[in-house]
Amino acid sequence: MLVHTVLMKTKPNARPAELRDLTLRIRLLASTFSGVGSFAVGRNVTEEPLDQGYSFGFILNFADHGALDAYHVNPAHMAVSFLIRDVASEILVFDIEN
User: Fold this and answer.
1) 46-96, pLDDT tens digit by residue?
2) What is the 3-class SS of the chain, one letter each residue?
3) Of 5, 21, 51, 58, which alpha carbon lies 20 to 30 A from 27's?
4) 88 bridge partner residues
């Protein structure tokens, strides 16, 4: 299994409605994409001193590298990527094989 983690520092002008829309789209993408197992999406809910300003993110679990590769070229993923770029000033992507 591959754990795909995406963390974001949101732009100061990112509106709550944009983040709600992004959350819904990520949930829809994760729940309908055939290669995705479980997932989590949302804002950081603790005051962690080491968060380095990353305040929003999501985690998707994929069965294998092939499922992650298919996800990356999926048109729905591409649309979500553009939304992320609209609201995020910095993005960190980290994949772990589990």
Assistant:
1) 988 899 999 999 999 988 898 889 889 989 899 999 999 999 999 999 999
2) CEEEEEEEEECCCCCHHHHHHHHHHHHHHHHHCCCEEEEEEEECCCCCCCCCCCCEEEEEEECCHHHHHHHHHCHHHHHHHHHHHHHEEEEEEEEEEC
3) 51
4) 10
- Helices 16-32 & 75-87, crossing angle to 10 degrees? 160
Compute the distance between CA of residue 38 and CA of residue 73 in angstroms, rounded to an integer.
20
- Residue 24 pLDDT: 94
Positive or negative torsion for Cα 82, 88, 91, 96: negative
Supply the pTM of this predicted model: 0.91
